## 1
Amino acid sequence: MLRLQSIILAKAKQFTVPSPSSLRLVKKRMIAMDLMHHSSCFLLPTIPLQRRPSLTYALLVLNQNLPRFTPLLWNHAQLRLCADGGANRLYDEMPLFFPQEDASDVRRRYKPDVIKGDMDSIRRDVLEFYASLGTETVDKAHDQDTTDLHKCVTYIRDSASGLDKSNLCVLVVGALGGRFDHEMGNLNVICRFSSMRIVLLSNDSLIHLLPRTYCHEIHIQTSVEGPHCGLIPIGTPSKGSTTTGLQWDLNNTAMEFGGLVSTSNIVKEEKVTVQSDCDLLWTISIKNL
Ligand SMILES: Nc1ncnc2c1ncn2[C@@H]1O[C@H](COP(=O)(O)OP(=O)(O)OP(=O)(O)O)[C@@H](O)[C@H]1O
Ligand SMILES: Cc1ncc(C[n+]2csc(CCO)c2C)c(N)n1
């Protein structure tokens, strides 16, 4: 009798074969997706203790104007790197944040742990200054196929010893504005290292990736960021993305680059949630306090 039932069931199933896309949807609903929390609390003077998960920060300085909050990020970071010409920026611009102080005192206080790149932009005097203070220098002049940012992210991932990498967040300053090929290269790095938390920052905005493999909860630090924001599918089209907490929420909405993308959106709540079938770029404005 049981065997007969299962034959009947099997036969019935033959006539209602679910499409691969509906199977994927069912599978997605059955597997509870992990939640990923995001918070720009690194822009606050002190990081709240109850911050979940507690992150370790690495700061990466690129060859562009240093954002005004660079000293703050420096203090939060456990590892500080300069990508090639980024060292010139640190050397030239860090003393400008402390006009009362002697420039060389400031330079000694803000000594990077590592300078890595193809070393075609760093000035000799700057390289010698930091090397004499004990900064590790890694010359990758032979590699002309990856950017200096890429080289530095690889260093953080593979070589930085004594750094808790289980909950690491890489803060990249000087990543936006300026030359467009560099900006696109920088965005490409966050897509290429999609399993790492990497935040690209300028004075005006920040960008990070929301991998499709998680549900995302973004805790808005309203004192320092927002309200302008955007969600952009940069690599592949999204068949459906869903959000809460935005003025123009997405409701299983399809998006694609060259079609609909969510720019000039507005954050309406302290918590924004995002779920998508593809990796999305999240961007939010930084307040000019
Ligand atoms: N104008 C910019 N806008 C955004 N990012 C930049 C800009 N300039 C440099 N960067 C970033 O800083 C890193 C180091 O800059 P640097 O000028 O040393 O690079 P580079 O390889 O010498 O550049 P290029 O040879 O293409 O001029 C780059 O890999 C890039 O990520
Ligand atoms: C297809 C292709 N396009 C551009 C470059 C040039 N390039 C890319 S990264 C880099 C290093 C910059 O520090 C250089 C020179 C390349 N190699 N391959």
## 2
Amino acid sequence: MAMTRFERLLGLLLRAAVRVFLAVFELFAPQRGSAEQPRLPPISSPLLRVPAIHLARQIRRKEVSSLFFLCCSLYLRFAAALQEAAQVDKLIEEETGGEDVLEDRLPLLGVPVTVKEAFALQGMPNSTGLLSRRTVISGVDAPSVALLKRAGAIPLGVTNCSELCMWLESHNHLYGITRNPYNLGRIAGGSSGGEGSIIGSGASVVGVGSDIGGSIRIPCFFNGIFGHKPTSGIVNNAGQHPPPSGQQPGFLCTGPMCRYAEDLMPMLRIMAGPAAEKLSLSAEVDLRNLRFFSVPHDGGSPLLSPVDPQLIQAQKKVVERLEADLGIKVKEVRIPQLKYSFQIWGAMMSSPGKDGKSPTTFAELMGGGKRVWPAWELFKCMLGVSPHTVAAIGLALVEMFQSSQPSQFILQQKESLQRELEELLGTDGVLLYPSHPQLAPKHHQPIFTPFNFSYTGIFNILGLPVTQCPLGLSVEGLPLGLQLVAGKLQDRLPLATALYLEKAFGGWRDPGDRAHTAENTLNTPKSSSNAT
Ligand SMILES: CCCCCCCC/C=C\CCCCCCCC(N)=O
């Protein structure tokens, strides 16, 4: 499917326009030309440098007191969490069945967990960054959170997200802006950016995120941690605001975020409840028996930025490593339909559900049921008195011009992409695909590159499981990474691949450790192009 001359011209014009906007933005953006980027101090507690499942073992063996562990951190539910930690230590003291019984019954006993604020966590705010919801306090737990609690985890509190979970940057007028621990001038991603930042910085062990367009994977990528968007329908999505409508329930996924790949599978098993059985998570995976495919970019959509050369290089290194270590051949494939990822995502997100009802508009969600007028909000925003962010107002404005009838061409692209990927991946295929075309951008920069999330969003529409895997740091000291995609219900394949890549590339890096920036393993190639 070659590009027409018109598409090429349009692409050139769009990219030129974005470059001009970005150049103007750079002129006014803070930290221009500063060599030493503001970052966090190194992590001092060794307890923050082990996977959650190791920590759980140390707590069960009484090597670490759950109470002591919580003293290392200060969070929103601090007093309640301390009480729960004391109960955990008492329970361990009184347990006569031994460590195995505890592990079986309460696999996360005493492990601290944080939760994206869009989820209900009893007694905690659930505003989803909307000023009008600032007094909403959850009376019950979302099912995924309840399952983690039932497994013994201790929630520390809730973390920031973008307004109504619909932006690449976690910024709202209630909590403010979330920063990236590797460079405080960069975004932490969205919408689960608070989780990405707190886990990446080492201040939380594991967390709960949600993803309808990349909201687990984008923050995991920007903050150098692991995350998993499960096969659609596996983890219960209830108890989140906003509730998905139309066809969106099929695209929204709840999943784990963590620093160590080892934690992904146990977290997923707990969060999925009985549905975990569908994933055969205990089945052994031998990577040498898998078929790997590498897709270096989306084929050159004019709406999206070209993939950063350092990300292309990182993906090549993964291919070389897999081939050398496993004795396999990774096949490079081009999938032309991916070029329409944004159009496919947009069309499906606004399609009516099986009941024929259209999804709730973003403008209605912003107004809490009563539609806001985006142009009026924009005017108020210019005067500095709108309760909404520029991004949310922009989304509501764009929505006004969106057709409710998706074009037949786009629907055909979606169908053929679904067929092609299902055939390609089968039950033993893993696809390597960039997580995002850019490294963590500066604050507010996504306003000029809003479509870049389509690299992740397309897999929500296809319902495929995707693991986000960190791959070390760039020359600027920002996280590199990759998406690992498998066929439906084959979640164990990208999870096993992430475990291997963690060993091969070092996984999460302490953002406060300056040595990483100097040591970064991946060289920058001179040029790259997305043209097919
Ligand atoms: C201020 C300019 C706004 C322009 C809007 C252009 C349209 C872009 C459309 C959608 C952006 C959605 C980003 C979604 C990010 C992740 C969502 C998620 N919860 O998984």
## 3
Amino acid sequence: MVIESLFYFSLAVLQALEDGLKKADADPSVKAVMICGENGKFSAGADIRGFSAPQSHPGIGLAPIVSLIESSEKPVVAAIEGVALGGGLEVALGCHYRVAHVKARMGLPEVTIGLLPGAEGTQRLPRLIGVPAALDMITTGKHIPATEALKLGLVDEIAEENTIEAAIRLANKVIGQPLAPRRLSLKPVPTLPNMEAFLREALVKVKKQARGCLAPELCVQAVRAASERPFAEGLRRERELFRLLLSSGQARALQYAFFAERAVRRWATPAGASWSSANAQPVRSAAVIGLGTMGRGIVTSLVKANIPVVALEQDLENLKKGRKAVMLLLEREAMKMEGGAQRLDFHNPARLQFTVDFDLLRDVDLVIEAVFENMALKKEIFHKLSKICKPGALLCTNTSALNINEIASATSRPQQVIGTHFFSPAHVMRLLEIIYGSHTSPSAIATAMQLAKALNKIGVVVGNCFGFVGNRMMFPYVQQAVFLLEEGSRPEAVDEVLEDFGFKIGPFRMSDLAGLDVGWRSRQGQGLTGPSLPAGTPARQRHGQRYSPLPDLLCEHGRFGQKTGHGWYLYEKAGGRTATPDPWLHNFLARYRDTHGIKARAIDQEEILERCLFALINEGFAILAEGIASGPEHLDVIYINGYGWPRHRGGPMFYASTVGLPRVLAKLEQYSEVHPDVPGLRPNAFLRKLVAVGSPPLQEWMSYVSWQSPKL
Ligand SMILES: CCCCCCCCCCCCC[C@H](O)CC(=O)SCCNC(=O)CCNC(=O)[C@H](O)C(C)(C)COP(=O)(O)OP(=O)(O)OC[C@H]1O[C@@H](n2cnc3c(N)ncnc32)[C@H](O)[C@@H]1OP(=O)(O)O
Ligand SMILES: NC(=O)c1ccc[n+]([C@@H]2O[C@H](COP(=O)([O-])OP(=O)(O)OC[C@H]3O[C@@H](n4cnc5c(N)ncnc54)[C@H](O)[C@@H]3O)[C@@H](O)[C@H]2O)c1
């Protein structure tokens, strides 16, 4: 008998499974059962949306179905095609045999949505593949390919072609064989000589990796229960831990992030362009201009996506340097991949060519410019590209903040100019901020989004303003961090608070890593510091607003961060990575305060957290009100994937909604009163409006934006 199930479990699917199993058991002519999915996909598990109303969640019925399958008196074989994830894999674990298509993937990704496998998976998987492999799958949520599943013993057979036929063949073969040895609930968990130490170390590891995130820790506890308790008791523990996670705010935040990352694919602009009507152009070849920090990673990313690349530098010396760096990155990437260097094929000049000759850019479909952050230089390059490149070519800039319209004005085809803002390291970071200018065509946006997908990145479409979304929100955050130093704090204290909150790296460590000189050059360009600053400008004021010259002063002392061996911290050597608090910096701060008559005060953790985060969130409300982003999800996806915002807190705007908008507003009002010369702390009008209308849920915020005068 064949039972078909759907992509993710609904009540109807579970009912059909139960009915099918009962019918098969009762029918003497049925000798074996095969369970498969519909349309070549086994199952993506329980319906994630349903977890917001757990009492009526169809998943409640899943564990009893898994038990029912396992207790069947007739052999049950799972035919796994596409994916078997979460509850899908748990169903397969209830089966007596598993056959997987060679291209199928399997995993227990519940941890990534703040849960643990709650349909008996934490108890069956360790019995099948042992504690170390099960723990790895359950705490990381990774999807493993069928070939690896076979090696682990997770599946019994791999089918190169027709999985269903292979599963039926196996079912026929095992008819009449004893089923008890195939029932995982009856098997003992394979022992390890050092189980206790292993589990203890695993706990320490997940706590370190997922700072502040509850699910990985509770996954370890559930697997520990499998190793220490009888099956039925282990199940009780699994259920208890599952409920605990389900009621945690973290699960809600992580599930929000899952859907937000999918929602941003459906982009739209205030002018009416959208994903549903715009057509992407094919990108069969690309060029990258500038092989510095960013260009190298971008080339690597394109080669990995199998897109032939022309890589261009300004002169032979820089070309040689850039080529060496790209080759090193590609070799490292090839080592990580199955099929290695041969699959990447980067030694073939038809796939990757290095040049200083712009003429070689004539035929490419897309160019990504990644030269210095200098408007005059970028305009010169785009003017050249406009003359050289073929008519349909898309011209992209990797600028971090500059005006896309101004760059486009140097070309005769502004409709094909677009910002593609990669994040460092560009071959690793998943975010691609895609910035359209006033003239960018819908097709150009669609092409950039398609490029993001091809590069395995998450593209987020945003409007044009200084710093776009990510960096624009980052400015007030970093500004508050520096003001806190002026007022009495230290870099390590500020970083610790934000790292405890869950950021991968605090603002001062981040600044040392990126290089303080980058921001310094940008501020010099804006006339905020350096020779173009008008004589007589007060040291701590610009345009009537508070300004901190501290980062400029550090640069004047040659302290650029890791690259010079000192910045906000001290490093073991130039290029060193280990940050230690620096007594020089502490003395420097004390002298600075004396010079400017600032009385240092003790600043508590709450103030550090609120001033940094609420200033960032406040800017987010301004961005939404101006129509620069089409929803709070966009801001959250950008922060989670580009700025190390802790995913289990759902992104800054989601976090604001959990803190409560009235509280965010009240705190901003309080801080703004104390610091009236800091516009970043002055509550944004859109935030005020949302509070005035009763703080609606985040999904409804955009309906309160007045669109009469979008800035775009
Ligand atoms: C207080 C009372 C307590 C009561 C207790 C309640 C008990 C409940 C019992 C629980 C039993 C637990 C069962 C189990 O352990 C839990 C689970 O199974 S959780 C789900 C685990 N599965 C996943 O996390 C898989 C998530 N999906 C993916 O990774 C990917 O979608 C994919 C399957 C790899 C496919 O990727 P793509 O091809 O890129 O496609 P998309 O990602 O774009 O997806 C297409 C479309 O489908 C939506 N979708 C996918 N999976 C799910 C899902 N599991 N639930 C809901 N929706 C899903 C996805 O969102 C896309 O739609 P769009 O958002 O674009 O509209
Ligand atoms: N570094 C980051 O973290 C980061 C992140 C996102 C975006 N960006 C942006 O990416 C761009 C590049 O930044 P970067 O950090 O890689 O800079 P970089 O200084 O490391 O590299 C710039 C490269 O451009 C080359 N170049 C300069 N003029 C050129 C010309 N006329 N023709 C060809 N090549 C030329 C230089 O030789 C150099 O190798 C900037 O716009 C920057 O704002 C940087």
